[in-house]
């Protein structure tokens, strides 16, 4: 997943102390719902919902903050693991590993999720937009209609790569276009809405603001062939 900063400005001059200060600011935003005006949005697929719930458990549990499920974030794949496990406006059932953590977190997960998951933007098993780029554009349009300045997204590797390809300059060679964010990783980036002319809007990621908070992009490991 990554934290999408729509308007917030920070300076990063590559100095290690400044980088650490910036990282701590972002971590505070992730941990503390009161640190800034922020919104949590997740793909409707179970693995994303459970990942962000565990990663931000203290924040969400204390603030009783809503996790918005948005089908525009659904993974761009035809594989079976790209289908949601629930109908329109329903959250998916819990996984067995998640249920096994109830005692550790001292919660009834079904009640916890019922109180904290917003399913208004949750479509059925698949988004009604058949093309992945249509889903992404509709999500981006919705994103900039929200009042929050900071949006925390819990998403998927393919979706993230297509997102960076779509909104970074085409001529720019950046790992976000070809490499996945490491599992459990968090990347911050500023995302801008540009009013080019009346009735014409463009969107752009600011490459200079892409900042690894937890882990980073990771290169695909190449398996070594065994010699016979």
What can you see in these coordinates?
A hairpin with a 2-residue loop joins strand 7 and strand 8 (200-214). This protein has eight helices and nine strands. The strands form two sheets. A seven-stranded mixed β-sheet has the order 4-3-2-5-1-7-8. A two-stranded antiparallel sheet has the order 6-9. It is of the alpha/beta class and 228 residues long. Helices cover 32% and strands 22% of the residues. It has helices spanning 16-31, 46-55, 57-63, 96-99, 102-105, 109-116, 132-143, 157-167, and strands spanning 2-5, 38-42, 67-69, 117-118, 150-154, 180-181, 186-197, 200-214, 217-218. It starts with a strand and ends in a 10-residue tail after the last strand.
Topology of this protein?
Layout: E1 2-5, H1 16-31, E2 38-42, H2 46-55, H3 57-63, E3 67-69, H4 96-99, H5 102-105, H6 109-116, E4 117-118, H7 132-143, E5 150-154, H8 157-167, E6 180-181, E7 186-197, E8 200-214, E9 217-218
Parallel strand pairs: 1-7, 2-3, 2-5, 3-4
Antiparallel strand pairs: 1-5, 6-9, 7-8
The low-pLDDT segments are: 7-13
- Note the total helix count: 8
Q: Helix and strand string, N-terminal first?
A: EHEHHEHHHEHEHEEEE
Ends: how far apart? Answer: 41 Å
Question: How helical, in percent, are the residues?
Answer: 25-40%
The profile of the biggest β sheet is: 7 strands, mixed
Could you give a short description of this structure?
The chain has 228 residues and is an alpha/beta fold. The protein is built from eight helices and nine strands. The longest helix is centred in the first third of the chain and has 16 residues, at 16-31.
């Amino acid at each position: 997943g990554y934290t999408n900063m729509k308007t917030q400005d920070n300076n990063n001059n590559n100095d290690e102390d400044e980088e650490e200060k910036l990282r701590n600011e972002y971590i505070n935003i992730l941990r503390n719902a009161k640190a800034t005006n922020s919104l949590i949005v997740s793909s409707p697929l179970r693995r994303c919902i459970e990942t962000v719930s565990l990663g931000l458990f203290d924040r969400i549990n204390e603030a009783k903050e809503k996790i918005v499920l948005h089908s525009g974030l659904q993974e761009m794949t035809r594989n079976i693991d790209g289908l949601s496990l629930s109908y329109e406006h329903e959250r998916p059932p819990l996984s067995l590993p998640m249920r096994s953590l109830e005692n550790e977190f001292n919660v009834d997960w079904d009640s916890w999720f019922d109180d904290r998951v917003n399913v208004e933007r949750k479509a059925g098993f698949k988004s009604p937009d058949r093309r992945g780029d249509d889903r992404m554009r509709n999500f981006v349009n919705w994103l900039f209609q929200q009042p929050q300045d900071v949006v925390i997204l819990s998403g998927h590797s393919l979706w993230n790569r297509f997102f960076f390809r779509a909104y970074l300059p085409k001529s720019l060679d950046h790992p976000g276009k070809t490499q996945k964010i490491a599992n459990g990783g968090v990347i911050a980036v500023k995302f801008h809405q540009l009013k080019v002319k009346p009735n014409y809007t463009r969107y752009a990621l600011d490459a200079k603001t892409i900042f690894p908070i937890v882990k980073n992009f990771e290169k695909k490991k190449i398996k070594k062939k065994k010699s016979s």
